[in-house]
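Q: I have 146 residues here and want to know how they pack in 3D. Can you give me a structure?
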Amino acid sequence: MNTAWTFAVSDDRYITITDRDLALLRLLHDDAHLASELARADIVAALDVPPDVVTMNSRVVFEDATTGRATEVTIVFPQDADVDHGKVSVLAPVGTALLGLAEGESIVWPFPDGSSRCLRVLEVTFQPEAAPPGLKAGMTPGEQEA
């Protein structure tokens, strides 16, 4: 196992959530894992969030230490989830685990099958707060909306 996997986000470490995301995520308060994460979040203005932090609608490449596989997904609200297009709900275990982490950070997260997996953020390839106006996940600047 890679020694980079020996650390995880601990219960006393804060994740970073934007004020806008928090307002919308609070509407999903029935999810215990999400509520727990939000309770320990460092809330920042959307304009102040570092560009390497996973926010809502961010596209992120992460690695699962169990499989060694790197996967790219977009973290979305439940109504926008579409696994076939790489859109993972924030209420899915992977979505909740990655939200608020920065590039290089890892977390050990429980999964429905009873296992725990160590997930590490390799790269935030798109973050809406850091993108030029009109640019959406998966678009290039030439495809930017008018």
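Q: Anything worth noting?
A: The chain has one domain: 3-129. DSSP finds three helices and seven strands in the chain.
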